[in-house]
3-oxoacyl-[acyl-carrier-protein] reductase FabG
Amino acid sequence: MSKLDKKVALVTGASKGIGAGIARELAAAGAAVVVNFAIDGERAEALVEQIKLENGQAVAVQADVSHAADVSRLFQDVASTFGRLDILVNNAGVYRETPIEELTEEEFHRQFNINVLGPLLVIRESLQYFGSEGGTIINIGSGASKMCPPGYSIYSASKSALDAITGVLSKELASRNIRVNSVNPGATLSEGTQAAGLYGVENDFEKQLVAMTPLNRIGTPADIARVVAFLASDDSAWLTGEIIQASGGLR
């Protein structure tokens, strides 16, 4: 029997990159997976078909996690499709290099609305759908919350806020038997980071990060997904409030 048999998981922002890797890993471990997306429905549906071809269960649901009405509808779809919720992965997030001279109110609110307000709205709504036996919430943070890279003050601040939310809610929700942990990826190759020219293009920035990483490579979505699957399973039953740096040793 797979570790997550008969479990239902919701992964936000799962149409590509780390989110897609997490959705595939949870499905392979036996969970039925709700693949949430905000914009890229074509990618989300393709991922669902891939999971089904591998004998998994999945469905794609559109919702912008920064809007409470969307979040409410998302969970109604979860309930109508699978009837319950056991695992919530808050992966949806955005970033943009923003030197302080280029800071705008619009960019601040865009990142904080999705990276901070989004997880809060999703977690608040999820409490109506976890069963009496509880469940597990896994927030996808970022190594940027500790490394504080130049040009990413908004993003680093938003992910630091998510670290704090993880700590607070791990205590607040413990009485409901809901565990709350974070996985903070280091340098990770995905469609987004490659399109931004950060990794996968053999530039000086990537070479510098690899040199700073004890395991001597850039991470992959699968690296992060395996840590998330562990936190989603009963193997991590004694863990809550943890901020796991999944970074190959990069600090």
Remarks:
- DSSP finds nine helices and seven strands in the chain.
- The beta strands are 8-11, 32-37, 57-62, 87-90, 135-140, 178-185, 243-246.
- Residues 105-126 form the longest helix (22 residues).
